[in-house]
Design a protein that fits this description.
Elements lengths: L1 E15 L4 H10 L3 E15 L3 E5 L6 H8 L7 E6 L8 H5 L2 E5 L11 H11 L4 H15 L14 H13 L5 E5 L7 H18 L2 E5 L3 H7 L2 E6 L2 E7 H8 L2 E8 L11 E7 L2 E7 L5 H11 L2 E8 L2 H22 L1
Helix pairs in contact: 5-6, 9-11
InterPro entries: AAA+_ATPase, ABC_transporter-like_ATP-bd, ABC_transporter-like_CS, ABC_transporter_ATP-binding, P-loop_NTPase
Pfam families: ABC_tran (PF00005)
Protein name: ATP-binding cassette domain-containing protein
Length: about 325
């Protein structure tokens, strides 16, 4: 069952064009010209209940615009958009009871009040029964380790503690959809791992649909099984993380330690990229042979002591996708 359905959605902004200089200012009094900027262009996709989806793209790709349309803040210029069976901007209040939203740069907490007071206010705003409120609060407090700072004012919390509280508050009313925008931005490694594990648990156990926008690809790998990638308002990829890795992550880095420096080595399938004497690093591109066969051939000819193989991480794969998109855009402009 689809919980979000997007069909041919476009969002265009009409911007007032300013003329330069003093004469331009005078001209603006009598002449109005506008330019149209398309932030989202004819995008279609659907998200099922319980799915965890990463919504990715470089800065200015239209990610935030789409999130705002799905939450009812913005109205699409054209196309059809339904969330929980409703048109978001028409049923914004009704949908908000079924949604949780966390923006990394904006807070929904009361700065001078203790954390517990913010939770209590949330309970009254959503008119939560005491039993439901306590059950959900205990669940979040335990998994996010919040008990030590529940009585502290929000302004005294660290960034990691505040983000844990933000995520907990967004889940107290048991939303069916959780929108997350950069939830781990600025956090240390331990805080990031704790939040990722919690979100994975919420998705798997409570079947909350998660839509995550982030520039940290490890968030996507840890939480989401599916990625939607947009670029300049266009949808350029919609599929599994593993499929994209198989498509673009065709390189492996092979580091080999020798008993002594064997000098220059030339082996079919392996390209030397770093030579430190007894330790050499090669780049292997997938072809008809395997990396293990290449290393085995090398070991049969040279005094190999140890070997390690690293596959491309998701950051490298996404970087390669963006580079391909930029290259296609440059070629299109040259032809045009």
């Amino acid at each position: 069952m689809s919980i979000i359905e997007v069909d041919g959605v476009t969002k265009t902004y009409r911007q007032y064009k300013r003329f330069p200089g003093l004469l331009g200012s005078v001209r603006s009094l009598f002449t109005r010209q506008y330019v149209e900027e398309t932030a989202v262009r004819d995008i279609s996709f659907s998200i099922g209940e319980g799915e965890a989806v990463g919504y990715l793209g470089p800065n200015g790709a239209g990610k935030s615009t789409m999130i705002k349309m799905m939450t009812g803040i913005l109205v699409p210029t054209s196309g059809s958009l339904r969330v929980l069976g409703n048109i978001p901007h028409e049923k914004r209040k009704q949908n908000s009871r079924e949604m949780g939203v966390v923006f990394g740069q904006r807070s929904q907490l009361w700065w001078d009040l203790p954390v517990m007071d913010s939770f209590d206010l949330h309970k009254y705003v959503y008119r939560l029964p005491e039993s439901q409120f306590r059950s959900n609060l205990d669940f979040c407090t335990e998994l996010l380790s919040m008990s030590s700072f529940m009585q502290k004012p929000v302004r005294q919390l660290s960034l990691g503690q505040r983000m844990r509280v933000e995520i907990a508050m967004s889940l107290l009313h048991e939303p069916r959809i959780l929108f997350l925008d950069e939830p781990t931005i600025g956090l240390d490694v331990i805080a990031k791992d704790q939040i990722r594990q919690f979100l994975r648990t919420v998705n798997e156990e409570k079947k909350v649909s998660i839509i995550l926008t982030t520039h940290d690809m490890k968030d996507i790998e840890a939480i989401c099984s599916r990625m939607i990638v947009v670029n300049k308002g266009n949808l350029v990829y919609d599929g599994s993380v593993s499929h994209l890795r198989n498509q673009l992550g065709n390189e492996q880095r092979v580091t080999i330690d020798f008993r002594f420096d064997p000098g220059t080595i030339e082996t079919p399938g392996l390209t030397l990229i770093q030579d430190n004497g007894v330790r050499k690093t090669f780049l292997f591109e997938r072809s008809h042979t395997t990396v293990f066969e290449c290393v085995s051939r090398l070991a049969a000819q040279y005094p190999v002591e140890d070997a390690s193989i690293e596959t491309e991480d998701i950051d490298s794969v996404i970087r390669k996708l963006y580079q391909q998109l930029d290259q296609k855009e440059r070629e299109r402009r040259e032809i045009g």
